[in-house]
Each structure stands twice: as structure tokens, then as C-alpha cells.
Design brief:
148 residues, mainly alpha
Length: 148
Amino acid sequence: MRSRKTNFLQAVVLLTGVLYILSGGIFSLSPHLFADIFSIDINEDWFKEIPREPFMFMMIAISRSFGLLLFTMGIAMVLPLFDPLRYRGLVYFTGILFPSGAAFLCAISCLTNPLGVLIIYASLFVLIAVATIAGLFITKGTVKTGVE
């Protein structure tokens, strides 16, 4: 039987995984659909010109591959649900390091161009990092004893 502390950490991990799966999956499948969801107007002519512009085509291809990486990270977040002690390192990387860095980059980008989607993602990444830190902190004692 798992403790309430472990259940909190698992809920944070599960919600993080769902967010990663949704945002990474939608963006990697269709950046245009992703923009439509957040009401970002994309000119169809510009979107059709991307394959002709080498730098923009490279940026879209790399961004879509990172969206796929985010999707697979979300799928990997299922592992700590089964054994939170064994996959604690995965929780550190995908729940603290990545969201902290992503929130920082989104916040820096918001200084130049304050898009609503960047502000939303920066806020979500900060929330994920803080909740994961809280979950890892409250389960720190149970890790030392080896009890879930």
C-alpha cells in the first residue's frame, strides 16, 4: 500500500506526463493545429513558403522533433507510477530540470515578444517544477527507508 505522500508525487507525475503527451503530440503532428488551439493566426501563404525557406524549414523540422521528444517524455512518465523509488531520477530530469529550463527560456522569450502561449507555458512549467519539488521533498524520508 502506497502512502499519501507517494500518491501526491504520483499525481504530479501523471499530470505532467499528460501535459507532455498532449502538447508534444499535437505540436509534432501539426504545428498549424497547435497554433489554432492557442488562437495564433498563421497566414496560409507564409506557412506554404516555409519549405522554400531553408532556415525556417529547418527550425520547423527541429521544433517538431522536439515536440516528439516531449511526447515520448510524457509516455516515459508512466514508469514512476509503477515504481516511484526506482525511477526517481527520471522524475528529477523530466519534472524539475526540463521544466525549469523551459520556463526560463519561455520567460526570456516573453521579454522580447509577450505571446500568451509563452506566458501560459512558462507558468505551467514553473507549476510543474514546484509541484515536483514538493512531491520529491515530502517523499524524501520514505526513500531513505525504502518504503513507497
